[in-house]
Amino acid sequence: MAGSIIHRKRRKLKSEINVVPYIDVMLVLLIIFMVTAPLLTLSVDVKLPSSTARAMQDREEPVIVIAYPDGRLGLQLPGDDNPRVIDRAQMEAMLAPIRAQRGSDFRVMVAAQGDAPYQRVIDAMDVLRRANVSNVGLWTDAGSDAR
Predict the structure, then answer these.
(1) Where are its TM segments located (predicted)?
(2) Given a cut of 90, is residue 24 above it in pLDDT?
C-alpha cells in the first residue's frame, strides 16, 4: 500500500457573497431609525387662542400706533387719514395731552404692517407703557396691509 495514492476531494471555492449578515445589520439599523425618528421631532403642542369677541363699539375713534418693519412708529390720531411717522420721544409727548384730555377711558390700538416682526409691536407697546397708557388693544384687519 505504500504505492497507493490517496485522492482527496477538493472543494470548489465559492465566488458569491453571503448577504445574510448584511441583511441582519440592515434590519437592526432600520429598527433603530424607526424607534429614534419620532423622538427627534421636538415639538410643542400649542393651543391657539380663539375669541368670540365682537368688534369695538366705541363712539370715539381710537388713537392708532403703527409699528413698521424697520423700527419706525406711526401715530394716527382720530380724524387723520394718514399716519404720521414719529420717533419714540415725540410719541410720548403727543400722547400725554390726549391722555390727560380723555381721562381713564383713553384707548390706544397698536397695529403692525404686514411683514413687521412681533418685536416691533412689543417696542410700540413699551413706548405706550412709558407714556402711562394703560388701555392698549391690538388692531386686526384681515383685508389691509397697513393694519
Answers:
(1) 21-44
(2) yes
69 near 115, Cβ under 8 Å? Answer: yes
How many residues in total does the chain contain?
147
- Would 39 be classed as within a structural domain? no
Q: What is the CATH number of the domain that holds 70?
A: 3.30.420.270
Phi, psi at 4, each rounded to 5°: -75, 145
Kindly report the pTM of this predicted structure: 0.56
Closest CA to 128 of 60, 66, 56, 55: 66
- 109-126 pLDDT, tens digit per residue, is 898 887 888 888 888 999
Among residues 121, 128, 127, 126, the alpha carbon closest in space to that of 140 is found at 121
Tell me: the pLDDT tens digits for 61-82?
Answer: 788 899 998 888 999 888 888 8
Does 32 fall in a domain?
no
